[in-house]
Amino acid sequence: xxxxxxxxxxxxxxxxxxxxxxxxxxxxxxxxxxxxxxxxxxxxxxxxxxxxxxxxxxxxxxxxxxxxxxxxxxxxxxxxxxxxxxxxxxxxxxxxxxxxxxxxxxxxxxxxxxxxxxxxxxxxxxxxxxxxxxxxxxxxxxxxxxxxxxxxxxxxxxxxxxxxxxxxxxxxxxxxxxx
Length: 179
Known about the structure:
Elements: H1 4-10, H2 24-35, E1 46-51, H3 54-67, E2 82-89, H4 95-112, E3 116-120, H5 123-128, H6 130-138, E4 145-154, H7 160-163
Helix pairs in contact: 2-4
């Protein structure tokens, strides 16, 4: 059985990916981890959009770069060949927290499989645009969703856990015990 704490301690963000897509069974495991994230009142307000189509991925990358004030030559997804987009139903009061838990679960599972990942912001801004809304409609997604984040995923160019130094120490006064 996996030691969850050890998996969390070794997880790092990846910013350099190989161009090949990850295996379907690995993608399914990562998505399943997201599906089973805790959510307020178990309302499961989040949805996950798996983008493995390069043209669509590149279009979303260009939209994300535009939010940053950059041109399409900038890839905010660091060359990751696929992305998982998490949106959540705005009508659920806990939607942002629910979506964040989905992202966290997926990052942890990706790390446990040796797959690189990095949380990329600006999904909210992208899917507030008419272009973003049109994309959702074309994909058959209806509802009042807010973008939570993108998870850039792929095989890392270097093994993430071996390439990075130990994490910096945790800040002072991070935890308070009231006994």
